[in-house]
Amino acid sequence: MDQQYNSLLPREQWSSSADFIMSCIGYAIGLGNVWRFPYLCYQNGGGAFLIPYVISLIFCGAPLFILETTWGQLLSIGGLGMFKICPIFKGVGIAAAVMAFWLNIYYIVVLSWAMCYLWESIRLDSNVPWRNCDHQWNTPRCRSEYEPLTCDNNRTVAKYFDVQVLTSDHLNEYRKQFFVGPKSNWTICSSDDLNVQSPVKEYWDYQVLGISSGIEEPGGLRWDLAFFLLIAWTICYLCIFKGVRWTGKIVYLTASFPYLMLICLLIRGLTLPGASLGLEFYLKPNFEKLLESKVWVDAVTQVFFSYGLGLGALVALGSYNSYHNNIYRQALTICFVNSATSVFAGFVIFSFIGFMAVEQGKPVNEAII
């Protein structure tokens, strides 16, 4: 009797259609737009990647997005219960709920990492801890990418006919000599000198994650990450505990704040030397990449990843609409905003990649490899 009574209760609805649109934008906009899309463009031919991406969006992403939100609005039921209309597929709804459960655990940890970096970035000390190798977690192999490569044990031993002979203590054990012309700018280094790590990577590996030397050293609890994880879960709870009407108001802040940050980062990135090189790499298509099947697979994967398809969340968001809501127009608007955000984030990221390339003295296609 209680179950039948609960099924007859009117479902809570959004205060306005704008609440639904902003909630879907807040749901869809995330790492897939700001991080993964620029990375795939970097790996798959720059602007040429937009061709398979747009095709995948038109034939896969947008239709499925419209289908899921329409399904929720029609049935006024969440992703777990919508398969009651066809009980044989009930397991699909359960599988989607399980996937959403694991993805929430994964993403909340990534959010705690971001909060950790944010805290370190806003400290009064201008030197962020991943800038240099002067910290207790750094190893002797630590060396900044922006410092010239030097060898610790190299020495000049002789000159023959204006040809300089260089040996290193390490290589001299094998009685090998290297002849270098006097006008060249070569340096002979041992393998130990060349096997270096950046302070950025060492901060991530040894300070943030606390990676141990092996399975025999399990390590301990990262209390700072646990603290940021608690904050992240608390914020999520405060955003949803009063229902969709409360969430529909909170999302105006959470969905618009990333755009403010992207605009600020773009302005800063465009003022850096080398930004034009990064943007040229981003906009200049390499059509030869389109012949690789991996590029097309990445495009389809990116559409499903950034739109959050198949998880039941879009069905749940659509279920809070009124029955006669114009879901088709709203879904197309959300799809346009989502993909436009990905392209805009590409300008932000590639402006900084161009700066990194200039600072490291490398071509753009090797700046982050």
Automatic annotation (TrEMBL):
Spans through the membrane: 20-37, 49-67, 88-109, 225-244, 256-279, 299-320, 332-358
MF GO annotations: gamma-aminobutyric acid:sodium:chloride symporter activity; metal ion binding
Membrane-topology annotation of the record: Multi-pass membrane protein
Record flagged with keyword Transmembrane: yes
Residues annotated as binding Na(+): 26, 28, 33, 306, 338
Family note: Belongs to the sodium:neurotransmitter symporter (SNF) (TC 2.A.22) family.
A GO cellular component annotation in the UniProt record: plasma membrane
InterPro entries: Na/ntran_symport (IPR000175), SNS_sf (IPR037272)
Organism: Loa loa
Lineage: Eukaryota, Metazoa, Ecdysozoa, Nematoda, Chromadorea
S-S pairs: 133-142
One Pfam family cited in the UniProt record for this chain: SNF
Keywords: Disulfide bond, Membrane, Metal-binding, Sodium, Symport, Transmembrane, Transmembrane helix, Transport
Compartments reported by the entry: Membrane
Protein name stated in the entry: Transporter
Domain of life of the native organism: Eukaryota
